[in-house]
Structures are given as C-alpha cells and as structure tokens.
Amino acid sequence: MTTTLRDVARHAGVSVKTVSNVVNDHPHVSDEMRRRVREALGALGYRPNLAARTLRTGRTGLLALVVPDVEAPGLHGLVREVVRAATSQGFRVVVEHLGAGTGRPAPSRSGAPPGVDAVLLGADPVPPGLVDAHLRTGTPLVLLGESGDPRCDQVCVDGTRAAADAVEHLVRTGRRRIAAIGARPGLASAPAQPRILGYRRALRRAGLDPPTGYVRPIAEDRHEDGYRAARWLFAREDRPDGVVCHSDRLAVGALRAAADAGLRVPGDVAVIGFGDSAEGGYSRPTLTSVSADPALLAREAVTLVTARLDRPDAPPTRITAPHAILPRESTRPAG
Amino acid sequence: MTTTLRDVARHAGVSVKTVSNVVNDHPHVSDEMRRRVREALGALGYRPNLAARTLRTGRTGLLALVVPDVEAPGLHGLVREVVRAATSQGFRVVVEHLGAGTGRPAPSRSGAPPGVDAVLLGADPVPPGLVDAHLRTGTPLVLLGESGDPRCDQVCVDGTRAAADAVEHLVRTGRRRIAAIGARPGLASAPAQPRILGYRRALRRAGLDPPTGYVRPIAEDRHEDGYRAARWLFAREDRPDGVVCHSDRLAVGALRAAADAGLRVPGDVAVIGFGDSAEGGYSRPTLTSVSADPALLAREAVTLVTARLDRPDAPPTRITAPHAILPRESTRPAG
DNA sequence: TTGAAAGCGCTAACAG
DNA sequence: CTGTTAGCGCTTTCAA
C-alpha cells in the first residue's frame, strides 16, 4: 500500500541509501542518479514515513505550544505567529491546552508532552511545578510571557516597565486618578506580580498613590469582567479619570461600561489596554494599547529552541522583547 | 539516557511483552505482575516513545487542522474547540497554515501533510486540487465549513440558508434596501457561492431585488475591508438601510463606517454579522450575528475522523450543523 | 499468563 | 560516488 524507500530503490535500480540521500538533499549524488531517483519517487508517489525517520534520528520536527487556551487573552496573535515562525524554521506545531487532557494526565502535571522536540509555554503565570516536571524529562522548554524562571530559556516582555509606561502615558495626558483592572485574584497580594508593581511604582513616582480599591481583580479575562470591574470603579465617589486594563478585551468591556455610565471616553475617562488586538483598533473610541510584537516573540522563541537543540547544555538564555504604546482615541489628552 | 521498555523489563525482572501489556492496559496480566511493573515504570521514569509506537501501529494520534490562518475570520472559536474535541477523543492537534510552508511544498499542493492520522480542513472555499491531492494520499479528510465536496466527509453549515435567514431577519425588522459585504472577489460571479445565493433568493422572495453594486466584494476579511465597503455603500444615493456582513469582523468595521458617516445603528441602518465573535457582543452597538456552534462542529468532525479510521471504505458522510441568529442591538427594529 | 523474536521504514556507519 | 547492513523502541504473532 504505502511506498517505502526500498520500493523506490528497486524501481530506480539503485540502493536504498541513494534514495535516502536524494530525499534528504545530501550531497555526493551524481546528477544522473538524482534524476532517476526523482523520477521513481514521483512515479510511485513516495511519501516519507515520519515515524521511522523520528525513530532513527530522535527528532520529530514537532514543537508543542502549550497555552491555557488558544483564545486566551494576552495571546492575541501569538498562536498564529508561532505557527508561522515554526514553519519557516522547519518545525510544525502541536497545540496543547493546559490541563485539557481528560484521558492522559494533563501536561501541567506530567511535564513535557511526549513526541515533541521542545515545548513553548505561553502561560502567565506559569503553573507551579510545571518547570520542574519539564526539567526532569529533558525536553527543552521556552517560556513566553512576563513571568520567568531562571532555569529555562525565555523570551519575555517586561511587564513592570510596560505597566509603568501605560501609567506614565495616562499621566502625560493629564490624568490624576488612575485605576487598574486585571489583577489575578489568587495573586493580587503577591507584590511581585510585575504589572501591578509597575503600576504602583509609576504612580508613586508621579506622586499619585491610588486609593484603596483602585486595583480591581477579575475572575477571567473576558469582556464582561472588564465591564463589571469598570462599572464598579465608575460608581465610586472618587471615580477614576484613567484606567489601565490588563488586556484589550477587558478594556473594550470597560469602554462599554463607560458608555453605559454616561461617561465620555476620553473626555471623562481615559482607557488603555494591553495586546494591540484588532478589536481595539476598531472599537469606539479606538483603543490605545501597550503591546509587544508577537511575530518577534515567536521568532525569538523558535530560534531559542534550535539553539537549545544544538547545545543542550548551554546556560539558559533570557531575551527581553521590546514593547510599545500605540496611542489611539481612548487616551487623547483631556480638554 | 532515555528509558525503554527493555530497561523497565529488566528492572522488574519480567519480559518486554509484559511491560508493554501493562503500559497499554491490556488484560491477562496478573495483579502481582502489574504492580511490580508499575513500580519499575515509576522508578525509572519511563516515557513511551511515540515514534516507535507509531512505526509499529501506523497510528500517530495526531490530527492536522489546516486553516488559511489561525486567526482567519469565520474561524472564531473553531481552533479552540477542535483542540478540545480532539483531546477528549484521544488525539492531539497539529495546526498548519495553508500555503505557509516556505521549505517544503505547502499542504495545498502536496495533499495531506505527512505523519497525521487525518486532516481537518477549515478553509472556505476549499483550494482547488486539494481534495484530489488528499484522495491520492489516502489520509482521511474532513471538510469544515460551508463549501463541500461529495467525495469526502464533512460537517458544514448551510450557508445559503444562513444568509437567507439573515436577510429575512432584517426584512422582519422593517428594512427594505439590504446590501451584502463579503463576497470573495474571485468568486463573485459564481452563482453557487452559497451565501450570495441565499441573500439573493431571500430578497427575491421578499420582492426586494437589490440594485447593482449592493453586493460588495472584499479583499480580505479584516475590519478595514468591512469599513471601506460600508463607506462606499453609505455614500450611495440609494443608501442601504440594512447590511449583511459575512463576518463579525467586517460588521464591526461597518459599524464604525456608519458612525463616521453620521448614521445611527440601528436607527438609520441595521447591521448583521456572521460568527458570534466575542467582539460583536461588546461592540457599540452590540452586534446581531448568525452562527453555528463551533464546539458542536468540532466534536462532529472528530467523531467523523474516528469513524473513518475504523471503516476507511464507508461512503462519505455529510453532517449539517444547525445555525441560529443571535439578535442584539444592531438590528433592533427601526422606529 | 508470560517470554522470545521478528520487523515496521528509515538513517548512518562502514565497506567497496 | 554507491551498496549493505544494523538497529532506533515498540507491538505482536507464536510458542511455551
């Protein structure tokens, strides 16, 4: 049924090795041979058996992209760019949801999923124990995001700086009462949570320490969470005149809350998001956003993988990807 | 370095076969054996070599999800749901961009990507020749979308009915001049393009045949394409009072165009989209949308795959997934 | 119920 | 430059 190298070899009247050489573009094959083999390859419709190749070489050519959920916020464009970057560097991408496995144990528990050359982890925060589990398996792991681990390769955005930049942007447009939406409830108290840290730091530097309750936790990262948090903020006596949202999705929810509360954006309140989603570019008003370049992140991550596969014992590399503020209508200077 | 079945067997003092039986939960193993083997498995940190297993069994446990682009519109929620459905049925998902391969030939040309048990194709329209290429490889192919092919399994939405429903919905809210945004330029003339067909049919039945130019082609499926098409429509003498957009993304672009043109939605013009994206639920105004349930689509598709793998020669199955209109602000009855 | 051995398709070491 | 061959780790007859 399926054509093997041997079939092709027989058909072309050459040895298996030669066919293999042709298939893999190895040198030291005469043009005449190459031509003949190519012909046989085509005639028989040869398709390489990846499993056999993998068994022999130890390389699958597969990268696992492990994320909480493909559509999780903060991931805008990342999946696409990882697929692109991986493809262009000769890998294919297996998408895996964190903790999704009903059958086998979830990757979060067992460490690296089997059958891949490396794992890209796009989860913030990194589930506890995951890094250790990986380290035990020996499969290279690259962290993508804002939180890191000194023991593995990572390409990350400086969340503290990014949040501070967002605050400074709002201050520059004349805002004084700046709130934040998007702290993870479980981590709200951890002072190290990078964005909250940056938010507080920037406000302190500006002499604008926020009142209690200005940092709103959310359950999940959905429009409605942003909406609810914003409604709550807008109902306060000391209503904020600027809101930093930890994703564009939350920010769009906040925009709607402002409208429902009869507030004008940016007149009464400015809103800034994270992630530069397409949605934010077409919301009303259009949304200012802080973002890194997902294509860059993805390329760097895949490059890290190849480097790691070449030298498994090199010390971990940490790459910091730049971020930028994309100013749009939602933060136009007031007045 | 890596632990093999033989290592475990030696460690437990049993044969390879017995270890294999335990790993695969085969019956006919005494409890005592099982216990001892389990222990050895754990102690040595055994991890099965998927490549070897695949080479032997012919099954990779991998499904390729081939799409134009992970973030392509019309795919809202599909990738996530395919990953979920596949996981729960024991598969993993390799995401492949159509024609993305810079190295090897793109899957659109060579047929099925190698090393997967089946291919799910989420591309509308299906690239010409792709189905033939697949058929030649023998890898099962399941089509997801609105266009189909009688030669392979498919789970699809009735695009003609869906578009007709959208038009009827607008008519019911009192609209008379109904335009459409989203015809693919290359196919604009093909009368079979299902949505355009449904659009025209429903209008004809309502005695509201559209004037020339009311069907706007777009280059891609982005906000700005919807925006531009809508601006053009709104600048006409016979400005439409209802617009059917072939994706939510286009529709959100159209909403913005309406605002920029000084038109109120739904007062002056109603807008309806396709896909029930989260974005449409939080746009201003919120967007009415026609959609199928992506989770259902995905589950059916994976079920089709397993059925096909069990009986390769069964006749192709076609499943039609239901769709529904989710009425929101953008199509509230006028007046 | 368990063990021994063959072989899936491929690559790489070695021989010619 | 080309051919022969061993063996990657696993499943699975077949025999005990």
Automatic annotation (TrEMBL), chains A, B:
PROSITE patterns, alphabetized: HTH_LACI_1, HTH_LACI_2
Pfam families assigned: LacI, Peripla_BP_3
Annotated segments matching region Disordered: 313-335
SMART domains the record matches: HTH_LACI (SM00354)
Molecular function via GO: DNA-binding transcription factor activity; transcription cis-regulatory region binding
Domain (HTH lacI-type) ranges: 3-57
Source species, domain of life: Bacteria
Record has Glycoprotein as a keyword: no
Protein name: Transcriptional regulator, LacI family
